[in-house]
Design brief:
Blueprint lengths: L3 H9 L27 E11 L10 H19 L2 E11 L4 H17 L3 E9 L3 E11 L14 E5 L4 H9 L7 H12 L5 H6 L6 E5 L3 H12 L2 E5 L7 H4 L7 H7 L5 E6 L4 H11 L3 E8 L3 E5 L22
Parallel strand pairs: 2-3, 7-10
Antiparallel strand pairs: 1-4, 2-4, 5-8, 5-9, 6-8, 7-9
Helix pairs in contact: 2-3, 4-5
């Protein structure tokens, strides 16, 4: 059986994807040494994926490699940061060479797309647990934040919402999805696409931003809480895919779209004067970006139909979205 250090050398030690931005010192020492460009700030985030909590037992290793990095890169995207480095810590039930090879292939395929260098980490024996810490940089003062939404801002959402939650419901046997739709929604669950280019393009355009990981209600709620304001969402303008729309009559459809989580799209706010710039960003990136509501001075989150009538009751933001301890 290969040792811990043999596994690291075999699967996780490789040249930096971009020599010009490589760490001063990467894998192989007690610490990595990094250099941030002048007049930039360091952006750092970490996320953990636990078997049976964040992914189903027996999930494909290459998909896990992709998703473990993608969910972290999504946090950098929400700040408008350029990704550069990653640290990987894993607990593994066994030293499975074939599994690690597949995991590394998924991880590095995404890392190469964004020129992310793996600069260190740790491995140990235990129930499958994957924790990645990512680092990047952003021009000083230019980072997008949660606390800068202003009354009158439009609320925007990249891509579509609800597919990942719909896919998980399908895998759990809660709903039957036509074969023609399964591949597209399962791709959204297993291989989310971090909106790095959108986040960078929105610097200086958006006032505030967040990535949608725990569901739109919960994550927009974080913006409202930090910015001390409220919001009005127009239900019919919340973007959804054709596959999701075909399941809109299901009793759980609204929950999947608003609070299902695992979307990893960006929700951001911007002044009305930025609408043309946002349309240009959408066209340039070939990425749908939909205006779905407005920031208001009055606290709370209100959801209305196409005619402006309230949908149900006002949403308790604290109760929306995924919570590990509830």
């Amino acid at each position: 059986m290969p040792s811990e250090f043999e596994l690291i050398r075999r699967h996780f030690t490789r040249p930096a994807p971009n020599a010009a931005t490589a760490a001063l010192l990467g894998v192989g020492d007690d610490c990595a040494l990094l250099s941030v460009p002048a007049q930039h700030e360091l952006a750092v985030s970490t996320d953990m994926l636990v078997a049976g909590v964040h992914f189903l037992e027996g999930a494909r290793a290459d998909w896990l490699g992709h998703k473990a990095l993608a969910v972290n890169l999504s946090d950098l995207a929400a700040m408008g940061a350029t990704p550069r480095w990653a640290l990987l810590a894993m607990a593994l039930p066994a030293a499975d060479d074939a599994w690690l090879e597949a995991f590394a292939s998924g991880l590095f395929a995404l890392a190469d797309r964004f020129e992310v260098e793996l600069i260190g980490g740790d491995t140990t024996r235990g129930p499958l647990n994957i924790c990645i810490t990512v680092g990047g940089h952003v021009l000083a003062g230019a980072a997008l934040r949660r606390d800068a939404a202003r009354a009158g801002d439009d609320i925007w959402i990249t891509g579509t919402l609800g597919d990942a939650a719909l896919a998980l419901a399908s895998l759990r046997g809660e709903i039957e999805i036509p074969a023609a739709d399964r591949a597209s929604i399962e791709e959204r669950l297993h291989r989310p696409q971090p909106r790095i280019a959108a986040g960078i393009a929105l610097r200086g355009v958006a006032h505030s931003a967040i990535d949608i990981s725990d569901g739109l209600l919960a994550d927009l709620g974080h913006i409202l809480e930090r910015s001390h304001c409220g919001a009005r969402l127009e239900l019919e303008r919340i973007p959804r895919s054709a596959a999701f729309s075909r399941q809109a009559a299901h009793p759980r459809a609204m929950h999947w779209m608003l609070a299902g989580g695992d979307d990893y799209e960006l929700c951001f706010t911007a002044p009305a004067s930025a609408r043309a710039a946002i349309a240009a960003i959408s066209a340039n990136l070939e990425l749908p970006i939909s205006m779905a509501g407005r920031i208001e001075q009055k606290p709370g989150l209100r959801i209305v139909d196409a005619g402006g009538k309230p949908v149900g009751i006002e949403v308790d933001i604290a109760a929306g979205g995924y919570d590990h301890f509830r």
